[in-house]
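FORM 12-B: Structure-to-Sequence Request
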């Protein structure tokens, strides 16, 4: 198992990964760092945990969009650029698979936050 130190949001984090996955891990960390940099550029002044949460939520949102687009393409359907807004008083349709993925992402974020906040 390889050990890589990534720098995200101005902080260094040692992270283990499978041998041969070091470059992939550093690329993913660079993407998260880019998101945090964009949030800071917008004037957001939060702690490290909050910034990681916001960056993770952005990535989860993109993942959900891409997952839905991929499923539509596999089903042979057209992909809508923007989902139509529900009518007033009408609940937006919720895909159970997306909810499960978001739940897993939230759990992962909480685990990361707990690790970062641990002494």
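FORM 12-B RESPONSE
SEQUENCE OUT:
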């Amino acid at each position: 198992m390889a050990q890589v130190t990534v720098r995200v949001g101005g902080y260094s984090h040692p992270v283990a990964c499978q041998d041969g996955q070091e470059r992939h891990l550093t690329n993913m960390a660079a993407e998260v760092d880019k998101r945090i940099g964009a949030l800071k550029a917008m004037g957001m002044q939060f702690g490290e945990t909050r910034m990681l949460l916001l960056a993770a939520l952005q990535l989860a949102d993109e993942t959900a969009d891409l997952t839905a687009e991929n499923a539509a393409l596999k089903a042979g359907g057209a992909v809508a650029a923007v989902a139509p807004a529900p009518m007033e008083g009408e609940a937006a349709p919720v895909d159970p698979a997306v909810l499960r993925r978001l739940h897993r992402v939230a759990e992962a974020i909480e685990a990361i936050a707990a690790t970062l906040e641990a002494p």
